[in-house]
């Protein structure tokens, strides 16, 4: 009998019958490799668990507490850096305008009022146009098309809500 | 609902006390895996602590349909594999590290004979050294198979491998271990051992 079946029996820890066991014993006397395979298998099957030094849980609690403090500190400094960076960018972008506003406030205030009036009149015009469309369009669109449109709108709203929920939810166990 | 699942649920809701109970319950398993993977007690202690910390931070990802121990050991195994890879990159030799140290082995009451115990301890030490010669993923597969009685499916899930890859890695590791064992064992001793303790 060749070497292969013995190696397979040993590698897969197969149950073998008495005849096969006898064959294996005689093979082991001549094959040092299979003998080593058997010995390592036996050593692996009788391995013991090793425990950590006493006080492992207490050391973990201390490490967890230190980690929480480090996380809080990192979040605090992250927030400080974010706000300071935002303010710096804002100052860099708005600085020239602020200087110009401080130089001639009256010009700026009149420009601001003008812009506000433009915005309000634009919104009023858009509202009027919308109202006209609201009364006219339903006559042109079939009920089926309305159903499709409303379903699509509902689907998109659901997708949007789920996405927002996934982004903002706070994972538990932290 | 068993105690462990109750602790997991409480820990997921933010109870540090419940997580501490889980640490107490699983510390030996996690530490032992890390010790067998990394080969020295200080690194194993650090890796076991880090594994529990990662489990704590990722508790919301735990799938309750999976055994908690399997999930935890999978975190520990991945951490140790990463650590061994980093160690390899930094050219740090395993051989230069200390062995044993502050750890102790759980006594086996079934084997009171000191000579038998001594031979067994010697074999375990040899095996521990030989394990260092295996590739890190192979080493994790062998440890899970023989120390934790994981099935090939559980090992595959834990190490993110296919079942056939696990099988092939286990066979390759067993062959490699046998090869290294054979190189180290004096021929006479190997022959004596065969005659003393027949197979199966």
Helix content of chain B: over 70%
What is the straight-line distance between the termini of chain B? 40 Å
Number of strands of chain B: 1
Oligomer classification: heterodimer
Number of strands of chain A: 1
Q: What is the class of the largest domain in chain B in the CATH system?
A: Mainly Alpha
The ordered string of helix (H) and strand (E) elements of chain B is: HHHHEHHHHH
CATH homolog superfamily of the largest domain in chain B: RNA polymerase sigma factor, region 2, helix turn helix motif
Give the structural class of chain A.
mainly alpha
Reading the helices and strands of chain A in chain order gives: HHHEHHH
State the distance separating the first and last CA atoms of chain A.
61 Å
Uncertain runs of chain A are: none
Biggest sheet layout of chain B: none
Query: Approximately what portion of the residues of chain B adopt beta-strand conformation?
Result: under 5%
Strand content of chain A: under 5%
Helix and strand arrangement:
The complex is a heterodimer of chains A (174) and B (200).
Chain A: H1 4-11, H2 18-30, H3 32-45, E1 50-51, H4 56-103, H5 105-136, H6 143-168
Helix pairs in contact in A: 1-3, 2-3, 4-5
Chain B: H1 3-12, H2 16-38, H3 41-57, H4 68-89, E1 104-105, H5 114-131, H6 136-146, H7 152-159, H8 163-184, H9 187-196
Helix pairs in contact in B: 1-2, 2-3, 2-4, 3-4, 4-7, 6-8, 7-8
């Amino acid at each position: 009998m060749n070497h292969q079946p013995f190696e397979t029996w040993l590698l897969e820890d197969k149950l073998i019958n008495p005849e096969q066991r006898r064959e294996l014993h005689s093979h082991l006397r001549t094959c040092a490799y299979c003998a080593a395979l058997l010995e390592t298998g036996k050593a692996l099957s009788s391995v013991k668990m090793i425990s950590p030094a006493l006080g492992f849980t207490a050391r973990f609690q201390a490490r967890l507490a230190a980690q929480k403090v480090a996380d809080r500190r990192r979040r605090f400094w992250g927030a400080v850096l974010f706000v300071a960076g935002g303010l710096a960018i804002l100052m860099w972008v708005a600085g020239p305008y602020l200087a110009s506003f401080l130089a001639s406030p009256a010009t700026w205030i009149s420009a601001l009022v003008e812009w506000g009036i433009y915005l309000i009149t634009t919104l009023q015009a858009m509202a009027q146009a919308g109202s006209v469309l609201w009364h006219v369009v339903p006559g042109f669109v079939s009920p089926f098309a309305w159903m499709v449109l409303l379903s699509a709108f509902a689907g998109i709203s659901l997708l949007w809500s789920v996405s927002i929920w996934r982004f903002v939810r706070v994972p538990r166990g932290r | 609902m068993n105690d462990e699942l109750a602790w997991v649920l409480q820990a997921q809701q933010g109870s540090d006390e419940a997580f501490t109970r889980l640490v107490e319950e699983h510390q030996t398993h996690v530490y032992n895996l890390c010790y067998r993977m990394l080969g020295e007690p200080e690194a194993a202690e650090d890796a076991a602590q880090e594994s529990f910390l990662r489990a704590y931070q990722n508790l919301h990802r735990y799938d309750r349909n999976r055994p908690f121990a399997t999930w935890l050991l999978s975190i520990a195994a991945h951490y140790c594999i990463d650590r061994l890879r980093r160690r390899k990159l930094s050219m740090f030799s395993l051989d230069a590290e200390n062995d044993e140290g502050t750890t102790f082995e759980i006594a086996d009451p079934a084997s009171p004979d000191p000579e038998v115990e001594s031979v067994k301890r010697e074999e375990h030490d040899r095996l521990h050294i030989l394990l260092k010669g295996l590739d890190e993923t192979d080493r994790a597969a062998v440890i899970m198979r023989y120390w934790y009685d994981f099935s090939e499916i559980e090992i595959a899930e834990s190490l993110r491998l296919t079942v056939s890859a696990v099988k092939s890695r286990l066979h390759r590791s067993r062959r490699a271990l046998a090869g290294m064992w054979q190189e180290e064992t004096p021929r006479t001793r190997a022959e004596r051992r065969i005659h003393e303790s027949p197979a199966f």
